[in-house]
Design a protein that fits this description.
This protein is α/β, with parallel strands linked by helices. It contains 10 helices and 10 strands. The two termini are 20 Å apart.
């Protein structure tokens, strides 16, 4: 197996100096859960936290499975190869929305999409994603290409019978417009859900699962907690988006799958569902979306 690309995470959330030490492990969860969105190929922190370390640390707190998400061709290839050699992993592959305009400018987008479809056909790949729209980092000049790439990913997921994982940053209405226009696959996930109660309701009505990350624990995330509270339990997933979005009280420090219990405990408090019961429900939802492994 080739080594992980180990790309570095971006600067701290406020652009300043970060505490790069790893948070302590939380108490294990009473029922196994899956981190349904993680980037093990992106390095962070001031230590050498290996793939083996990440898998072991997650297992010790009852996070027994991880969906490894590749966001460009290099990451997608690594996700597939790594998942084929580690039974705790399955893969999701796509071109991140912000990749699409760059590839199009180089005349490489169609070839890249063709390779993503070839990779997505592998059994270990259970989702096409993360794809979608990003109006934060891509300006108006690149949004037409970004939307066309999103549409192509939706079609790939439907052709192959895979789940769809959606990246939505500052683009709620356009994301839902495209999904409804194309018609979603049987299973689709709003990764790192960031909308309000109304948007969450409309996504669920259209068949989505809403995946909550460490952002739901942030002190200023009241509207997001309201959306979680309003989401049917059978449509809730949990993720880290590691190494990003580390849950409170460790915000800004390196994230990893072993910190899922921090988020799950907050989700239990918000929903009023006992922790073990919520873990079991989230795990059942994860299996429904991605299948067994």
């Amino acid at each position: 197996m080739t080594a992980a690309p180990r790309r570095r995470a971006e600067t701290g959330e406020n652009g300043g100096r970060r505490d790069l030490s790893r948070p302590p492990a939380p108490e294990p969860l009473p029922h196994p859960v899956t981190d349904n969105h993680c980037h093990l190929d992106i390095g962070d922190g001031d230590d050498d936290f290996t793939l083996a370390d990440a898998l072991a640390a997650a297992g010790e707190v009852n996070v027994h499975r991880i969906v490894q998400v590749g966001c460009d061709l290099r990451g997608a290839r690594w996700a597939v190869e790594t998942a084929e050699q580690h039974p705790q992993l399955v893969a999701a592959v796509a071109l991140h929305p912000n990749e699409a305009p760059v590839l199009a400018e180089r005349g490489e987008l169609e070839a890249a999409l063709a390779e993503i479809e070839q990779l997505a056909a592998r059994d270990v790949v259970r989702a096409v994603g993360e794809t979608g729209l990003d109006h934060f980092r891509t300006g108006p000049e690149g949004r037409g290409v970004q939307e066309e790439s999103f549409r192509q990913h939706i079609r790939i997921a439907k052709r192959l019978g895979k789940a769809l994982t959606i990246h939505d940053r500052d683009a709620h209405e356009d994301v839902l417009r495209v999904v409804l226009d194309e018609g979603p696959p049987d299973h689709w996930v709003m990764h790192c859900f960031s909308g309000d109660v109304d948007f969450g309701r409309r996504c669920v009505e259209a068949g989505a699962h809403l995946s909550f990350a460490g952002t739901v624990t942030f002190k200023n995330a009241g509207p997001l907690r309201d959306a979680l509270r309003a989401t049917p339990v059978d449509r809730i997933l949990v993720e880290t988006d590691a190494p990003f979005l580390t849950p409170h009280p460790y915000r800004g420090r390196p994230n990893a799958s072993y910190l899922v219990p921090q988020t799950m405990r907050l989700m239990s408090e918000v929903t009023g569902v006992e922790l073990g019961e919520l873990c079991a429900a989230v795990e059942a939802n994860t299996t429904r979306v991605y299948g067994d492994w």
